[in-house]
């Protein structure tokens, strides 16, 4: 009998800890209007890095370091990736970023999903939507979004890691203006 009580107590404590993590992640997300960060991105083994700013809902501006002036910009509806020699324009809703940049979507999903603790440092949620799998990662200490992994529309495996996160800063509204082709 004592063994069953011990198992029941452990189960209750485990569920309570998971609920507390979810609550802290959701509370943190709700308090964020925008954040900027350094990133490292691995797409099929090719590593790039730079700085990004995300503003909810669904806006992002990234400037890649040591590239051919590569920028990635979403105004909330469209996504542009521009370099010195190329210009790619996509409807945002056709990309995994459509979900990653939508904090209300993330909050709804986190409420329903089971968390996974990785190395006692990361909290992971796996989102399955439209035949896509998106793994999002939060820091177990700060409850900040610190990365994601997904397969992009070209079937490239993409891992993005965030660091040096700064929240709710004053940012220019023009930051998310889509660049022209020239």
The stretches of 5 or more residues where confidence is low (pLDDT under 50) are 1-17
Percent of residues in β-strands: 35-45%
| Mean of pLDDT | 89
Task: Tell me the number of helical segments per DSSP (H or I, 4 or more residues long).
Answer: 3
Explain this structure.
The chain has 182 residues and is an alpha+beta fold. The chain has a single domain (23-176), classed as outer membrane lipoprotein receptor (LolB), chain A, CATH 2.50.20.10. Helix content is 24%, strand content 43%. It has 3 helices and 11 strands. It has an 11-stranded antiparallel sheet, with helices on one face. Helix 1 runs antiparallel to helix 3 (103-112). The longest helix is centred in the N-terminal third of the chain and has 30 residues, at 2-31. The radius of gyration is 18 Å and the shape is globular. The model is unreliable at 1-17 (pLDDT under 50).
Describe, in short, the structure shown.
With 182 residues, the protein is α+β, with helices and mostly antiparallel strands.
